[in-house]
Amino acid sequence: MVDRGTTKVAGWSLIEATSRRTPFDPTNAWIATPPPFITVNTDGSIIDDKGRWGVMIKEFDGTAIKGAAGSFDSKSITILELKAVEIGLVLADKINRKKAFIVTDSIIVLYYLTGYTTLTWDSKNLVRRIREHMGKMDDCVIRFNFRETNGVADYLAGLHVGVDWVEFTPSSFAQDLKDIIRRESMGHVYFILS
């Protein structure tokens, strides 16, 4: 698919992904990855003036493997989203998975990681570390996903864990998180009321 250490946007045209002519399509909510790829869903948020992020690693069929949530000293959503990507790749390495689809609901993160736009000063070190992690993988694909299909990572990013980061295994998931995972794997859309 992709040479080691390179990235591509699978099945997406960057122009179409950002065009207003490409509306959200709820029938395309869950996009399964081919085995043995994992999906690394990521999200960042600012709640009560504090930066938070969340990441969920799933099998190709939508089964959750591992999650994480944490805080980071930034008030930039883009930086928080990038931090989630970094931790997602760290977790993938910890569970010895070398093929991943990184899924982000941030066009800016997609552009930064694919080299489509110039990095800001505050993102350079984080993007460098992410690219180093990506270079250790056998295959790594970056994909944009609409926020409405990223409920699990959004849920985790909304947690107030009070520490830099904490990992979750499926046996420790709260019931409402399990319900979101199940609904997402069935193709249901997560609507945000904000």
UniProtKB/TrEMBL annotation:
What organism does the UniProt record list as the source?
A: Kingdonia uniflora
Question: What CDD domains does the database record attribute to this sequence?
Answer: RNase_H_like (cd06222)
GO molecular function, a single term: nucleic acid binding
Query: Taxonomic classification, please?
Result: Eukaryota, Viridiplantae, Streptophyta, Embryophyta, Tracheophyta
Which named protein is this?
RNase H type-1 domain-containing protein
Tell me where in this chain the RNase H type-1 domain is found. Answer: 41-157
